[in-house]
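Exercise: predict the structure of this protein bound to zinc ion.
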Amino acid sequence: MFSEGELTQPVPVNSGSAPIPGCVERAEMRSVLLRHVVEGGTCRSCGNPPDHTGYCFAGRVAYERLATDWPH
Ligand SMILES: [Zn+2]
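Solution:
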């Protein structure tokens, strides 16, 4: 005979699909922004020319994420 406790299995923790915490994403965006510096008409990291904002595409995306998602 099984007791009630032996029939219940622990639920496996699926940490692989957990969303990225906001603080981790902001740190990543900040590092992207620091790498993508436009010098002499092209980005130092990806080589793309800047758009009207003065950032390359990757740099501008990172900048806008930092500007809009800041928690304070
Ligand atoms: Zn770039």
